[in-house]
Amino acid sequence: KQEVTQIPAALSVPEGENLVLNCSFTDSAIYNLQWFRQDPGKGLTSLLLIQSSQREQTSGRLNASLDKSSGRSTLYIAASQPGDSATYLCAVYSGGGADGLTFGKGTHLIIQP
Amino acid sequence: DAGVIQSPRHEVTEMGQEVTLRCKPISGHNSLFWYRQTMMRGLELLIYFNNNVPIDDSGMPEDRFSAKMPNASFSTLKIQPSEPRDSAVYFCASRDAGELFFGEGSRLTVL
Q1: Distance from CA of B42 to the nearest CA of A (A)
Q2: pLDDT digit string (tens) for chain B, length 111 residues
Q3: Do B100 and A106 touch (CB under 8 A)?
Q4: Residues 6 or more apart in contact with residue B51 via CB below 8 angstroms
Q5: A66 part of contact set with chain B, CB < 8 Å
């Protein structure tokens, strides 16, 4: 059974710093990996989707990488801003329907002004 | 597209009452999911539809929960009778080409 772990559970950094969020998974046979952000009281907003054949995806100040063989993905946030404060979740799709989609518990990020 | 639309956004009800949550997926998406999120348990999958057909409902807590998808643009999640432990945020999501899109959620409080 796929397990997804996100470390750290919480992170607080000063504005302007570059930072990395980590996501690890136990079964490397995945179809894709998706990063989400969730603001308090809101739904999950899709940030980046990486297919299993890809190594990275970029959107603005965000860069997500995928290393299937080691079961790891990282979300890199450049020049962090207070508006980046949110919970970031990764989800791994291993196929086979909905139960093939496994979420991590998220990293709660606070960017200090 | 307006994204996944859920209603109501907030619902407060008394124990024993029937609750109906509604979802309109993104047009063209053929997979629809209902999730429940709580602080203690995180995000839990309740049920999954593909082409309007329920494929996996193993996450539905008990018989008090039921879900329907009468057509490609509408789904409901019903709780009858509701209990205080059902208090949570309920999310609907639809999927296209492997990418999942969530609605804003329905926050349910059962007193």
Answers
A1: 6
A2: 689 999 999 999 999 999 999 999 999 998 999 999 998 888 999 999 999 999 888 889 889 999 999 999 999 999 999 999 999 999 999 998 788 999 999 999 999
A3: no
A4: B30, B72
A5: no
